[in-house]
Amino acid sequence: YLLLGRWRKKHLTFRILNLPSTLPPHTARAALRQAFQDWSNVAPLTFQEVQAGAADIRLSFHGRQSSYCSNTFDGPGRVLAHADIPELGSVHFDEDEFWTEGTYRGVNLRIIAAHEVGHALGLGHSRYSQALMAPVYEGYRPHFKLHPDDVAGIQALYGKKSPVIRDEEEEETELPTVPPVPTEPSPMPDPCSSELDAMMLGPRGKTYAFKGDYVWTVSDSGPGPLFRVSALWEGLPGNLDAAVYSPRTQWIHFFKGDKVWRYINFKMSPGFPKKLNRVEPNLDAALYWPLNQKVFLFKGSGYWQWDELARTDFSSYPKPIKGLFTGVPNQPSAAMSWQDGRVYFFKGKVYWRLNQQLRVEKGYPRNISHNWMHCRPRTIDTTPSGGNTTPSGTGITLDTTLSATETTFEY
Amino acid sequence: CTCSPSHPQDAFCNSDIVIRAKVVGKKLVKEGPFGTLVYTIKQMKMYRGFTKMPHVQYIHTEASESLCGLKLEVNKYQYLLTGRVYDGKMYTGLCNFVERWDQLTLSQRKGLNYRYHLGCNCKIKSCYYLPCFVTSKNECLWTDMLSNFGYPGYQSKHYACIRQKGGYCSWYRGWAPPDKSIINATDP
What we know:
- The complex is a heterodimer of chains A (411) and B (188).
- Helix content of chain A is 12%, strand content 25%.
- Chain A has 411 residues and is of the alpha+beta class.
- In chain A, a hairpin with a 4-residue loop joins strand 18 and strand 19 (294-299).
- The longest helix of chain A has 16 residues, at 25-40.
- Chain A is elongated, with a radius of gyration of 26 Å.
- The N and C termini of chain A lie far apart (53 Å).
- In chain A, 39% of the residues are buried.
- Chain B folds into 2 domains: 8-101, CATH 2.40.50.120; 105-183, Alpha-Beta Complex (Tissue inhibitor of metalloproteinase-1. Chain B, domain 1), CATH 3.90.370.
- Helix content of chain B is 16%, strand content 34%.
- Chain B has a 5-stranded mixed beta barrel with strand order 2-3-4-6-5. Chain B has a two-stranded parallel ribbon with strand order 8-9.
- In chain B, strand 10 (160-163) and strand 11 (169-172) form a beta hairpin.
- Chain B starts with a strand and ends with a helix.
- Classes of the chains: A alpha+beta (411), B alpha+beta (188).
- Chain A binds chain B through residues 2, 4, 70-71, 74, 77-85, 88, 104-105, 107, 112, 115-116, 119-120, 124-125, 129-130, 135-140, 305, 316, 320, 322-323, 326, 357, and chain B through 1-6, 14, 32-34, 62, 64-68, 93-96, 128-131, 145-146, 148, 150-151, 184.
């Protein structure tokens, strides 16, 4: 980070003088206010909006000509916005840009505003291209967050906010390993009708399906017997968010809430579970992609790519799922790379298969129960035509890509 | 100051002046809230702008980087400088394409010499999210912002968007072996 100036007070007023024509007024105002909050979240600064009169920081939109700014803008593209440094307080946006919020189209007002408010508070440009204070805007990020360099910069000017916020420390913090409280197990799921918490291609090519407190293997001969999750992986709770096995490291990672567990086979690694600090809690799914040997974590419409053996810079994540995985739904309930080398996503009662270019193949989504669990459709109480279970009448046609796996556990 | 990413060819075509020069002096003059920096330069070569200003001696930029002011080292490097002309003065800034000459790739140098000029009738369409499409014959899809390597990426460093046989504009790398990942990426 680079420091250009400093306000000699920590309570600042701001005023929005006009708004862009491309956004509803309340959306634009909310985006501009959020820009201030991004900074007051991490530094002991308070901002108060005023509707009239003098204000420390004044935000406005002008174009190629301006009656009050000698530094005029240049039409669409190139310069998007500029600002003064303390203790002047002008923040100007190019009115010829297509200002947007909550979409990949156009130029995101909230992110650019946060950058310019950063200048108005005294920050110069960062040499980290993923920092908010980098000079070039690289597009909308739905889960936008300040980069550690941005936080370090503002705290160098105004000090830290107390209490210290989470996500600050770089290392994962250890939690006391409390054995899970033995609680009443959730009802046994029915592999034929149940939606899934997680799917994993585990060690020795076995496919595991997780739901509630139970896990079972999946093979050509149908679902195997149900086990309590904690009966196989001691110390692991049920109702997992995601599970992923990496052949590269032999590690199995399980995710639930804000915690992560690591196992090798069925043995928990020392120091786990740990707190998830560098990605968001409550993940939806996780998979290992053999082509680049990375682990992908999914939540909502975003994903993180994680190198297990290197320090990964997560500042550019989450990235949009649809940017890499074409045709995949948001909030998948499970995901995995399978024996056939393809990537599968699961959500609700259906699944999607992706080709090597990570594009959903023709004919998907298909039915999980039918093709993975090899369940026969209920013949009595569902109508044969228009039934919601399987496309075939007999219920035993197999998805050709599924091949035999064993059904027993070796442990 | 925030800039939208710009491909060097776009920067070239949208500039009044494109020169290679060495910075030999620097002066702060009072103009605007923070003043203006005026760099004295020794022009080595001009690629664009002969009609607007055949010989550039001074370059103006805002003194504050929050207002897109540009910092250049004096008596140290040769730079590629692009900018616009207002009132007979050349202005540049952070959002213009400015690079140390020794940091430019061979393709960029060739681009400056003739390829970028050939491509000024083509349109480089920035692609920030998928799917994105070309909508006319004269567009090339610029996908560096989507790549894991970020901006500036392969297309900025190694390609020019040039009109080919049949009137279509497409990415051109010249003699260098084609880069497979980019060929895939430009396919909408």
